[in-house]
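Progress note, sequence design subtask.
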């Protein structure tokens, strides 16, 4: 029970100690003991064999040739020499074996290439190629050679040392001992060690299985609880022990926070007037608020359904969502007309955006729609009132502008009624006033019914260069036009002739504001936020008083003695017909800047 109350971390650490550390330590200790024991036993045998070989070497006081010469067998056949030497060396070998009965030992003659072990029946065919290599190695290097053979090779320990007489190596002294008994003892020790290791592993495995069983049971309990939480965040995981208990508490706490956040989100989304829809990467609707259902007429069970089941393929909402999802092309405040119930048409502003997770990975798309129908109707009413007010100003301006020429013409006619002969000067004045009336009528007609625009894709920089050069040539004055044009501008969607008229009129007003001398700076750039090309005309004139700024685009409003007041009004109508914007910025004593925004041409296809 005390062990179970410990955390799983401690239980696993104890298990690792039992399963790995203890068996490894025991195995290492036992194998080290076995290895050291084997080494010490072999070293002990080596010392004993070396001592016996040393005694055998010392017991031979002459060389093999000396022994043969004494026996008058120097010229005898090899077989007789071997037999004679075995007979003479046998007492020496037997004497040494009395003290070392477990050893096999003897001599080796280099000249005769034979082992001399005291056996008179041996005639030279008495050793293997392995032993031949050992004899050759100890003779050639004049150093001892030791060979230890495993149990599979007979379990032999063999030693060879060079035999030197009269300053030269005449052969070797050899000795062997059978270590089979030693190897068998070592095997018994190894079996005992492996038994201890096996017992340790079994104990560790038993503890492992018990711990894994408890761990798996607890993990399955947590897994089942988490699966239930996927459908019911109010479910509470049962308590557990150790670290899993802390995990279940953390999961329960997290589920509670998720429930709270979900409630907050639902309250917030329900209180927002804008419609919000969210789709995942599979184009499945994963989120929609009440406003979106109401505005778009979606059914209550639209969640978790594919987009093609929620919107028809030709629906702009379907197109905007799929385009954002697959091509990552987004829209911002795109106005869409959406047919609603009872024959009404809603004006909606649509925006799309990508949803990303904490790792900046795209996980879906969100679409927001805002109902601006009431605002559009209100703006239409305001524009209608503004048009009526402008019409009143227009009528008053027309009456004022026409009254003056008519007054002059009427006066001269009355004068001619009394004096039927008109003077050339009076005829000239009447012709001038008639021309003035024609000019007013022409501009008024152009303002009321501007020429039909012929739109196309055109380069704004080329247009600016053309108008600036023409203006400079036409007005050979002290006005300098400086151009600051941005390269690589996208083409604009415009009628070049009408836009030339607008730019020429603005340049003419700028030149008049500087009294015919000074510098006008014309620049172009891309206004990315509005997706329009911006043309700026900045003069260094005296500026415009703030009180007259709101009236500059009104028809017949002018500050010039002989001006008609329709130039900027016509420019405003042309720019508005292009879907662009025109703005004026001015400060007294610092000049005026006119900003003309022209829409960028849409890509074909």
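Output:
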């Amino acid at each position: 029970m005390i062990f179970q109350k410990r955390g799983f971390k401690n239980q696993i650490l104890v298990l690792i100690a039992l399963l790995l550390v203890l068996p490894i330590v025991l195995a290492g200790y036992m194998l080290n003991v076995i290895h050291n024991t084997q080494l010490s036993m072999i070293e002990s045998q080596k010392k004993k064999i070396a001592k016996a070989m040393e005694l055998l070497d010392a017991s031979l006081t002459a060389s093999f040739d000396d022994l043969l010469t004494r026996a008058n067998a120097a010229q005898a056949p090899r077989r007789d020499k071997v037999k004679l030497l075995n007979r003479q060396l046998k007492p020496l070998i037997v004497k040494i074996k009395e003290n070392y009965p477990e050893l096999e030992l003897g001599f080796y003659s280099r000249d005769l290439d034979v082992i001399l072990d005291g056996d008179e029946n041996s005639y030279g065919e008495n050793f293997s190629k392995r032993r031949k290599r050992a004899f050759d190695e100890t003779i050639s290097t004049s150093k001892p050679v030791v060979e230890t053979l495993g149990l599979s090779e007979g379990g032999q320990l063999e030693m060879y040392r060079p035999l030197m007489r009269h300053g030269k190596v005449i052969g070797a002294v050899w000795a062997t001992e059978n270590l089979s008994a030693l190897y068998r003892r070592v095997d018994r020790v190894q079996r005992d060690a492996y038994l201890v290791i096996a017992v340790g592993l079994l104990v560790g495995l038993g503890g492992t299985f018990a711990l894994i069983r408890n761990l798996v049971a607890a993990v399955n309990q947590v897994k089942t609880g988490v699966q239930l939480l996927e459908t019911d965040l109010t479910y509470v995981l049962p308590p557990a022990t150790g670290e899993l208990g802390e995990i279940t508490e953390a999961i329960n706490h997290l589920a509670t926070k998720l429930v709270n956040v979900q409630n907050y989100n639902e309250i917030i989304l329900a209180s927002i007037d804008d419609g919000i829809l969210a789709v995942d990467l599979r184009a499945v609707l994963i989120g929609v608020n009440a406003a979106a259902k109401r505005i778009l007429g979606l059914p209550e069970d639209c969640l978790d359904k594919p987009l093609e089941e929620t919107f028809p393929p030709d629906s702009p909402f379907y197109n905007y969502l799929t385009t954002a999802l697959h091509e990552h092309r987004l829209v911002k405040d795109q106005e869409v007309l959406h047919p609603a119930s009872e024959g009404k048409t809603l004006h909606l502003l649509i925006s799309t955006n990508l949803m990303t997770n904490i790792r900046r990975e795209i996980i879906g798309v969100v679409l927001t729609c805002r109902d601006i129908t009431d605002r559009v109707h209100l703006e239409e009413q305001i524009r209608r009132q503004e048009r009526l007010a402008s019409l009143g100003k227009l009528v008053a301006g027309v009456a004022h502008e026409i009254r003056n020429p008519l007054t002059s013409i009427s006066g001269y006619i009355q004068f001619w009624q009394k004096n039927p002969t008109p003077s050339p000067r009076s005829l000239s004045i009447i012709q001038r006033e008639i021309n003035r009336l024609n000019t007013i009528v022409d501009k008024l007609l152009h303002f009321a019914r501007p020429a039909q625009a012929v739109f196309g894709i055109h380069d704004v920089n080329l247009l600016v260069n053309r108008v600036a050069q023409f203006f400079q040539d036409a007005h050979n004055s002290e006005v300098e036009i400086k151009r600051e044009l941005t390269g690589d501008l996208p083409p604009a969607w415009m009628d070049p002739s009408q836009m030339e008229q607008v730019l020429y009129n603005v340049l003419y007003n700028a030149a008049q504001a500087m009294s015919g001398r000074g510098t006008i700076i014309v620049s172009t750039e891309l206004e990315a936020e509005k997706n329009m090309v911006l043309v700026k005309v900045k003069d260094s004139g005296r500026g415009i008083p703030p009180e007259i700024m709101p009236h500059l685009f009104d028809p017949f409003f002018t500050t010039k003695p002989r001006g008609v007041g329709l130039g900027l009004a016509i420019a405003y109508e042309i720019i508005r017909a292009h879907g662009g914007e025109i703005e004026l910025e001015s400060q007294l004593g610092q000049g005026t800047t006119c900003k003309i925004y022209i829409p960028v041409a849409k890509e074909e296809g």
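The domain at 378-448 is CATH 1.10.287.130 (Helix Hairpins). Work on this subtask will continue into the next period as scheduled.
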